[in-house]
Amino acid sequence: MTSSIREWLNLVVRWVHVFAAIMWVGQTYYFTWLDGQFSRLSKNAGEGAGSSVWMVHSGGFYTVDKQKSLKVGPEQVHWFRWEALMTWLSGMVLLFLVYYLSSGLIDPDIAAISQARGIAIGLGVLAGGWVIYDLGVRSPLGRSEAAFAVFSLVMIAALAWGLMQLFSGRAAYIQVGAVFGTIMTANVWLRILPFQR
User: Fold this and answer.
1) 13, 15, 50, 60 - which has most CB atoms within 10 Å?
2) What percent of the chain stands above pLDDT 90?
3) pLDDT tens readout for residues 38-79
4) Burial (0-12, 13-18, 19+ Cβ within 10 Å), 75
5) For residue 158, what are the β-bridge partners?
6) Can you give 159-192 as a three-state secondary structure string?
7) What 3-state class would DSSP assign to 114?
8) Which of 30, 127, 136, 39 is nearest to 83 (CA)?
């Protein structure tokens, strides 16, 4: 692959990644806000408050009612999961383009490992990060927000320190970000959505 093609591919995939992430964060913010509105309505239910949230956007008025059960066919339900997958997939393509398939991953002054070994470590860290997170959150440790926060902080610090002993500085921190993205996307697809079906 020529450097010109690689640069154009990098630019296109980077914009896809940014756009997908904006959509994912925007949807998350919207539904967090919406859930907060319904929580407020349920607290004020005795004060004559309605059970619907009214919104206006682009000249249209929308009313949203929270349902306890699905009253329509599954083909009419819009699952907000594709933003997460597109963000992760485009991020993985960028990780390969910028680090795994170029010279940005390994710094010979830090560690004398081959590119192939670095890629294997990077991919193993992505999978291992999800497994450690998932086991931690499902363990008794996950029942306490404070304990899980301390556990997470220690694990992130250990991961960042360990990767700094193997990769270039920039690649190490991008790899930590890729672990976060993998955990978040796997959470959406493997934990959140299956329980909502």
Assistant:
1) 13
2) 63
3) 888 888 776 555 678 888 988 899 888 887 777 777 777 777
4) exposed
5) none
6) HHHHHHCCCCHHHHHHHHHHHHHHHHHHHHHHHH
7) coil
8) 30
Domain ranges of the chain: 103-197
* Block residue for tokens 């991020």: 91
Query: What is the sign of the dihedral through the CA atoms of 108, 109, 112 and 117?
Result: negative
- Of residues 49, 48, 51, the one with CA closest to residue 65: 51
Spatial distance between the Cα atoms of 80 and 85, rounded to a whole number of angstroms? 10
Write the CB contacts of 55 (distance below 8 Å, at least 6 apart in sequence): 61, 62, 63, 64
pTM (global) more than 0.70: yes
Measured from the Cβ of residue 117, the count of other Cβ atoms closer than 10 Å reads 13
